[in-house]
Amino acid sequence: MGQYLSTSQAPIRKAQSMQPRAVTYESKDVPIPDDFLRGPPEKPVTCTPVPFATSDVPEYAKCYAVTLDNVVSPEECAQLIQLAEESVLPASEDDPNQGPWRPAMIAVAPGLEGPAPGYRESDRIVWDRQELTDRIWERCCRAEGLAEQLAVVRSDDGYGPLGRPAGQWELSQINKRMRFLRYSPGQFFKPHVDGAVSYEEDGSSFQTQYTVHLYLNDSAEVSPGSKLVGGATGFLSRDRKRRIDINPKGGSVLIFQHRRLLHEGAKVKKGQKFTVRMDVLYKWVEDAAPDVVPDAA
């Protein structure tokens, strides 16, 4: 079986101009129009399961992955990119990356991130904005049955984090963190499995369970007139010899479980690929204690 990398475990090769640094994300307070991403989209949102069972990677048949079409319009996609670029604080004078787009990093230790040339090569903008992610998620949930399908996640053994009593993960909300990604010709993200992010807050446990990718432009594979060639999200067999590709389609969303699904951002051959990565957040809810039936007198 071939080896694969988690985004939290990938080896780091230092770039001369970039060293591991503390994770700090600060943004401008960009005003969001009241009507932006409000209300139903122009067309009904449709949900289509990724057909693992009939693909070249049938071993993923029991894994959850779906595509949603018509979530965001082309105009809204362009406005999202513009707002993200406006959210970026000016770079310091000694920062070689003076534009809004900065090289994408990966986690190398708690609170630290660093470059991974040869493994992850793209640019990104990180923007925490719950208001926007909530609006995007409301659009996603217009797909029939989606919210019900994602409402609960049971752990394999029924027990939660840190030895908590039996229970289940219940959907809390979509996370506030948006990772806007820009892939230029020759850029890619090598095969990896998305790791869950866990934290404790006010005595409760939270964890991400699903990845949400909103594509912001079309590839030539779905729209022949597009300047973008390549850049598919590919789900791969462990030996990387078999795959099924999801080609970027502006305004569509790909949702898939973190666990088990080895995937990559395939190399962009021409043009630029724009996407937003988000996560679905869950809260651990303990099973109700069974009622105690008193002994008969």
From TrEMBL:
Q: Where is the composition biased (Polar residues)?
A: 1-10
* Any Pfam family: 2OG-FeII_Oxy_3
| Record GO cellular component, one term | endoplasmic reticulum
Q: Which UniProt keywords apply?
A: Dioxygenase, Iron, Metal-binding, Oxidoreductase
Tell me a Gene Ontology molecular-function term this record carries.
Answer: L-ascorbic acid binding
Give the residue ranges for region: Disordered. 1-20
Report the cofactors.
L-ascorbate
Taxonomic superkingdom: Eukaryota
Q: Where is the Prolyl 4-hydroxylase alpha subunit domain?
A: 63-281
Instruction: Return the protein name.
Output: Prolyl 4-hydroxylase alpha subunit domain-containing protein
Its source organism is Clonostachys solani
